Amino acid sequence: MTSRKLYHGTGPGPITPDGCAVDYYAMLTPNGEPELINAAVPREASILELGAGAGRITRGLLSLGHEVVAVDESPEMLAHIGGAETVCSPIQSLELHRTFDVVLLMSFVIETADDGLREAFLRTCRDHVAEDGCVILQRKAPEWYDTVQPFERVADDGRTVRMTGVSRPGPDLLAATMEYVAGDRRWTHFFLSRRLDDDFLESELNQADLTISGFLEGDREWVRAVPRSRGHRPGGA
Fold first, then answer.
1. Can you list the domains of the chain with their CATH numbers?
2. Do 121 and 112 touch, CB atoms closer than 8 A?
3. Which one in 12, 35, 62, 122 has a CA-CA gap of 20 to 30 Å to 28?
């Protein structure tokens, strides 16, 4: 699959290769994610943040005392990040030749419908996590894929967020378009993603020499994985 088939975006300002609108993402603020991650990792753990975007989570992690290396393939996104080392690179080809206490892959990036790309993402995670470290992945809870329908909501700051064109073009696949409106500006982001249940995700992780060790919350959206040599089957946070 090509990136164009997997994702594409429209709207004012720069658009990243995976269809994200830089100006829109630069507006967003965290919703408790830095604190959730901080509570799940050692104090002052070194963190490699893959797909950091405009730094929505990066800034919170820095304020909590973590040293963060923020990676994104968009220089326009990285230009919004201050206080962290930044690396402009696609996730799948990253080679830093160093390891970290924690590797983060958030914002549902792992749910790409391209199996080869997912394999490459996980290989990058394994290459950069310390043997006694962990990888934290964010996915939609598998049940979300079964039930999600078009919606519209208005955020506290007045932004309108819509999901339209929801379809299921194949087993475990979901296609949809997100629409974001802020004032007189409007962006769209089409995506094709894959449902990752626990068993499938575990098999994908195993191929990268990783294994699920638990979940950060009860809804299983946030997955903690460790190198297989010290991992165990999921049973809790």
1. 22-141+196-229 (3.40.50.150)
2. yes
3. 122
- The per-residue pLDDT for 190 is 97
Pairing label, strands 85-88, 68-72: parallel
Tell me, what's the pLDDT at 5?
80
- Alpha carbon 93 to its chain centroid, in Å, reads 16
Rounded to 5 degrees, what are φ and ψ at 47? Answer: -130, 130
Strands 68-72 vs 151-154: parallel, antiparallel or unpaired: unpaired
Number of C-beta neighbours around residue 94 at 10 A = 19
pLDDT digits (tens, 9 = 90+) for 62-103: 999 999 999 999 999 999 999 999 999 999 999 999 999 999
How far apart are the C-alpha atoms of 1 and 115, rounded to whole Å? 9
User: Which residues have a Cβ under 8 Å from the Cβ of 30 and sit 6 or more positions away?
Assistant: 56, 57, 59, 60
